[in-house]
Amino acid sequence: MPKEAVTVEDLRAAGRWCDLFSISSAIDTAFAACDFSGGDVATAQLVQDYLALHIAIRELPPARPTALRLLSIPGGNGCSACDRPGCLGNRVVEEQGAYTLVFEHHKTRRRRDEAITVAIPAGSTTATLLTDFLGRRRAQLTKSDTTALFIGRDGEAISESAFAAYVPRLLRNLGCGSISYTAVRPHAARHFHPHFAQCSCAT
């Protein structure tokens, strides 16, 4: 007997479908209402939260959450994911207020052996958040010598399981419902990264 067709409503109910433009609008609305003037740890965490949202939703190619979690700060001390000679790992590169996200490890199809780079123009919201976070906020979240960009609640590099739940939790707090990171990836690919979408990379 043939399987019954899966509808958008079925996928939405299972947390596997999302309207990325509505999510993007929710992020913009909440971001505009935030007060980032404080100098406390809570404000530093808020900056990291919105940095994670902007990179995951606006900037990141259709890679798994691990790719984002593995990002290291400029000047990091090498790859934390492999021992391949010369591999610098996933990293943030800064040049005159602009940034490049380099993903040596991303697990996307057809580009497994080629680094993916994402340009973050100077003056963009993501670049502004990166500058603020790297300049003063990140140091408020960790006292360790970790070079990881994103910091967990224990002050160390955020763990893989914690990061997989991190972005969905932030979206849920914005009223976007229960959306898995897996649901966000292919939609980001289709709406913002058409080159990768046609390659079916979001798996």
The overall pLDDT average reads: 80
What portion of the residues fall into strands of 2 or more residues?
A: 5-15%
Helix content: 40-55%
- Figure out the total of helices: 8
| Separation of the first and last Cα atoms | 28 Å
SSE diagram, text form:
Blueprint: H1 8-13, H2 20-32, H3 41-59, H4 65-69, E1 91-95, E2 98-103, E3 116-120, H5 125-141, H6 160-173, H7 181-192, H8 194-197
Antiparallel strand pairs: 1-2, 2-3
Helix pairs in contact: 2-3, 3-5, 3-7
Defining key terms:
8% strand; disordered C terminus; three-stranded antiparallel β-sheet; 203 residues; single chain; mainly alpha; 3 strands; hpI Integrase, Chain A
Question: Overview of this structure, please?
Answer:
This protein has 203 residues and is mainly alpha-helical. It has one domain (8-197): hpI Integrase, Chain A (Orthogonal Bundle). The chain contains eight helices and three strands, in the order ααααβββαααα. The chain has a three-stranded antiparallel β-sheet with strand order 1-2-3. Strand 1 and strand 2 (98-103) form a beta hairpin. Helix 2 (20-32) packs antiparallel against helix 3 (41-59), helix 3 (41-59) packs across helix 5 and helix 3 (41-59) crosses helix 7 (181-192). The model is unreliable at 189-203 (pLDDT under 50).
